[in-house]
Design brief:
The chain contains four helices and six strands, in the order αββαβαβαββ. The chain is an alpha/beta fold. Helix 3 links the parallel strand 3 and strand 4 (103-105).
Length: 140
């Protein structure tokens, strides 16, 4: 344990966050997401939800402010205008951290982006669509 760190920030997650560079993406995904099939680096946080994982990550990770859409979520299949409860909670957390709302992308596009992500953080989030991609920014 280290002082001042969220206990969800495991050694593997801390290493991934510190190793990622500006522009690298971190995917935080729910329990239904095919994480093992879509991850270059897979980090398990099975005992928590996506919101708690994002909160812990945002305590250390700057969100990119150079590109227009540094946060992406998955669109609801057959209802792209819908905002699931998990996405609403993730959006509130982003706004509280000073970032803009995430942009929704189609499911298969989200999978493709997750495959290219620097790391995939697999949570135990049970709510549908509890997935988000965050682009790492710079520390000024």
């Amino acid at each position: 344990m280290l002082l001042g760190l969220d206990p969800l920030l495991t050694p593997d997650l801390l290493h991934a966050l510190a190793s990622a560079g500006h522009g690298d993406r971190i995917a935080i995904v729910d329990a239904n997401f095919p994480a093992a099939a879509n991850a270059r680096r897979l980090i398990h946080l099975s005992g928590t939800d996506s919101v708690a994982a994002l909160r812990a990550i945002l305590s250390l990770l700057p969100v990119d402010d150079f590109e227009p859409d540094p946060a992406l979520v998955m669109e609801v299949v057959d209802d792209p205008a819908a905002m699931p409860e998990a996405v609403a909670d993730l959006t509130r957390l982003l706004r509280g951290a000073g970032a803009g709302p995430p942009r929704a992308v189609p499911r298969q596009d989200f999978y493709a982006l997750a495959r290219e992500a620097f790391a995939v953080v697999a949570t135990g989030e049970r709510r549908l669509y509890g997935n988000i991609l965050i682009t790492k920014g710079v520390v000024r």
